[in-house]
Amino acid sequence: MGAKDNFLNSSLGIVPPRTRLNPIALTPYVWLEERGETDGAEGLWRIHDKLYDFTSFINYHPGGSDWIVLTKGTDITEAFESHHISHAPEEMLQKYYIKPAQAKRNFPFTFHEDGFYRTLKREIRKSLKTIPKELYPTSDMYSDIMFTGLLIFSLLSVRYWNYVLAVIAGVILGLLTVAGHNYIHRKSSFRMFYFQFSLLQVRDWRVSHVLSHHLYTNTVIDLEICMVEPFLNFLPIKKIFHGYLSVVMAPFVWLFTFQVLFLLRLVNYKTIKPISLSGLLLPICMYIFGTQSLFHTLLLWEVILSVGSFVFTAIGLNAAHHHPDVFHDGDTPRSLESYDWGLNQLDAVMDRTDITGSDFLVLTSFGDHALHHLFPTLDHSLLKHLYPTLEMVTKQFDVHLRMTSQWGAILGGFQQLMKIKPNPFPPDLNNKKYLLR
Ligand code: HEM
């Protein structure tokens, strides 16, 4: 098998986008455009094996117009199923129905009424009604405090020309960016723009993270896998120097993710909108209130960005998905015929015992990740209340959520980078060593 096949081969039978071999050219928008060629949506919106025309619904979608506009011409089955917990969206579908789809779906995932995901969703719907209102949400408070901290430490660092203060501002920026991600999945709100002080873009991430990584986790179509290649290759395929280079490269990737993605954004300038530049408000404030030259202001801002990038990317890439026992495309899957999407999500995740339970840690380190993937529109501070329900349904289906420590996740990430042989057996969700304690 050549290097080319390595990148294109999916053990789930998923046909990747044409531009899969060229990570720089594979922007979120190219990814969306090329989904049109594989999804059999015939220029409309596909849900399961039916085609719909939501054109007249774009401006009425309660989650915001972005989601509908971006996904025209694609299969939105996984997005539609996972982003709505109430029955209302499903009940509206008939109004927009056009015709049956001709082509087979590009994904093996199913959502049968008696399957794992829909059963869990029914139970979660009930559990959400029992959570007392006063218990949530703490996320808004923590996010606002971090935003204020970022401003204060950034301004003080430039005012007093102090690298320590800049590093503190950088750490806050990294954590605030993770927290901002909590809002990107949901209907648009001002807090989602906290994410943009990193120079990363909400709209791009709604594609690369929400519509790609979240729905097709660790597969050849997961943009978060594609975008870090060839520097970091998490798929179990033949790699340069058997992956040793990846391990050395990892900290550099962490350090410059914010800046490199921003520069790539400038290359694809046609998708830039005025709001894309909102992150520049931070250096502008630093320049106005800091009394330093433009050059010195930019220098400290670069320190803040690099530290922030390091914190955000190191947390993100070592949070929950990369471990030799977690499913990566190429590994033997649980099923190819009828693979419940929720089970696939459990196969592709491993949560961390030392993060779960703390609202602040969960918000700032992509915690309670399995539940977050299964129900991405729920505020992070709600997730801890849903473990008993998850446990009840996993027991019913004789599967478990696997847990490890944060250190286990970091170590697992490096082991996965070195891994060149796919797992010959499907993921084992009953493996005693990882069970929730
Ligand atoms: C790409 C596909 C879609 C995505 C990613 C998406 C995403 C979302 C999001 C993020 C929300 C807000 C949830 C919240 O913050 O609580 C929402 C709400 C909603 N969406 Fe969508 N949506 C999609 C397609 C649709 C379609 C096709 C319909 C109906 C024809 C629909 C109907 C609704 C309704 C009624 C709500 C209100 C909340 C609820 O009842 O669940 N959505 N959606």
Automatic annotation (TrEMBL):
<feature type="transmembrane region" description="Helical">
    <location>
        <begin position="272"/>
        <end position="290"/>
    </location>
</feature>
<keyword id="KW-1133">Transmembrane helix</keyword>
<dbReference type="InterPro" id="IPR053100">
    <property type="entry name" value="Cytochrome_b5-related"/>
</dbReference>
<feature type="domain" description="Cytochrome b5 heme-binding">
    <location>
        <begin position="31"/>
        <end position="102"/>
    </location>
</feature>
<protein>
    <recommendedName>
        <fullName>Cytochrome b5-related protein</fullName>
    </recommendedName>
</protein>
<feature type="transmembrane region" description="Helical">
    <location>
        <begin position="164"/>
        <end position="184"/>
    </location>
</feature>
<dbReference type="InterPro" id="IPR036400">
    <property type="entry name" value="Cyt_B5-like_heme/steroid_sf"/>
</dbReference>
<comment type="similarity">
    <text>Belongs to the cytochrome b5 family.</text>
</comment>
<dbReference type="InterPro" id="IPR005804">
    <property type="entry name" value="FA_desaturase_dom"/>
</dbReference>
<comment type="function">
    <text>May play a role in muscle cell metabolism.</text>
</comment>
<keyword id="KW-0812">Transmembrane</keyword>
<dbReference type="Pfam" id="PF00173">
    <property type="entry name" value="Cyt-b5"/>
</dbReference>
<feature type="transmembrane region" description="Helical">
    <location>
        <begin position="297"/>
        <end position="317"/>
    </location>
</feature>
<dbReference type="InterPro" id="IPR018506">
    <property type="entry name" value="Cyt_B5_heme-BS"/>
</dbReference>
<dbReference type="GO" id="GO:0020037">
    <property type="term" value="F:heme binding"/>
</dbReference>
<feature type="transmembrane region" description="Helical">
    <location>
        <begin position="244"/>
        <end position="266"/>
    </location>
</feature>
<keyword id="KW-0349">Heme</keyword>
<dbReference type="InterPro" id="IPR001199">
    <property type="entry name" value="Cyt_B5-like_heme/steroid-bd"/>
</dbReference>
<feature type="transmembrane region" description="Helical">
    <location>
        <begin position="141"/>
        <end position="158"/>
    </location>
</feature>
<keyword id="KW-0408">Iron</keyword>
<dbReference type="GO" id="GO:0006629">
    <property type="term" value="P:lipid metabolic process"/>
</dbReference>
<dbReference type="Pfam" id="PF00487">
    <property type="entry name" value="FA_desaturase"/>
</dbReference>
<keyword id="KW-0472">Membrane</keyword>
<keyword id="KW-0479">Metal-binding</keyword>
<dbReference type="GO" id="GO:0046872">
    <property type="term" value="F:metal ion binding"/>
</dbReference>
